[in-house]
Amino acid sequence: MEFQHISILLSECLDSLNIRPDGIYVDATLGGAGHSLHIAQRLTAGGRLIALDRDDMALENAKDRLADVMDRVTLVKSDFRNLDTALASCGVDQVDGVLFDLGVSSPQLDIAERGFSYMQDARLDMRMDQQQQLSAYEVVNQWDRAELRRILQEYGEERYAPQIAAAIDRARQQQPIETTVQLADIIRSAMPPAARREKQHPAKRSFQAIRIAVNDELMAVQEAMDRAIDALAPGGRLAVITFHSLEDRIVKTAFRKAAQGCTCPKDFPVCVCGKTAKVKLVARKPMLPSMQEIAQNPRARSAKLRVCEKLSDH
């Protein structure tokens, strides 16, 4: 099935990367290949785009979507947390820019059988890499109640996590929870009537939490930020789009840490810690989508773009 995808904050990303026609760039989250296509179109034959994804469907789709620019593109199946290994496999040690568009892609949500969406009935899955063993089915049916409660609270910021975890536990003792709609109904039934009437779907936060757990997304982001910064050549840019507060907090913290120099007390006459800043923040606050973009693509509503630039090596 063809990926249908609208690239979010596209012009802001392209401008932020400061793309040089002969540079080397990484799209660490290939997805529907929209960002990759526009980056590659700005490159000449001397430039190169390395595009990563752990989703085989995304990689296959990209061969068609990027057909006209494949002379400048290298597709790599890889979790972006292994960015350093992926670049080494391409014979690259430094790059001029890296882009991350975090979270689940529109095609993964829209293709019912992938089991990401609470709006379409399918077997519980939610795996970005369909070769991995752990799926949403195992998380929902086999993880203990306390662990379910923890991920719902931490990853979904779900205020009714105890009640939902208890409801899931009761239901699976009767029979396995097989499908997305089954799970969504159990979640809804565990919430008070007022919560069910909120604008946001009652299952949204819980599905987010389970998806993050299945794909170990937050730890992957944390590891990837350090590796991406290390991979940048002096003057290279790292641009990261996040969609919820947990991701954004990790990215913001990683950028600030990398931008921090000497940590010695101010009354020290000379620096003894030896720490120097690796990057500078291109802007203190994240870039947000315009109202026009949100109107055209409601999924852009919660997007934030943060950008930093690698400083010269000392």
From TrEMBL:
EC annotation?
2.1.1.199
Question: Tell me, what is one Gene Ontology molecular-function annotation carried by this entry?
Answer: rRNA (cytosine-N4-)-methyltransferase activity
Task: Please provide the record's keywords in A-Z order.
Answer: Cytoplasm, Methyltransferase, rRNA processing, S-adenosyl-L-methionine, Transferase
**Reaction(s) catalysed by this chain's protein:** cytidine(1402) in 16S rRNA + S-adenosyl-L-methionine = N(4)-methylcytidine(1402) in 16S rRNA + S-adenosyl-L-homocysteine + H(+)
Q: What class of enzyme is it?
A: transferase
- The reply on keyword S-adenosyl-L-methionine is yes
Signal peptide region: none
Q: GO CC terms for this protein? A: cytoplasm
Which parts of the sequence bind S-adenosyl-L-methionine? A33, G34, H35, D53, F80, D101, Q108
Kindly list the places in or outside the cell where this protein is found, as annotated in its UniProt entry. Answer: Cytoplasm
Q: Which GO terms describe its biological process?
A: rRNA base methylation
Sorted alphabetically, which PANTHER family does this protein's record hold?
Answer: 12S RRNA N4-METHYLCYTIDINE METHYLTRANSFERASE (PTHR11265:SF0), S-ADENOSYL-METHYLTRANSFERASE MRAW (PTHR11265)
- Name the HAMAP family on file: 16SrRNA_methyltr_H
| NCBIfam families to which the protein is assigned, alphabetical | 16S rRNA (cytosine(1402)-N(4))-methyltransferase RsmH
Record protein name field? Ribosomal RNA small subunit methyltransferase H
Q: Which organism is it from?
A: Butyricicoccus porcorum
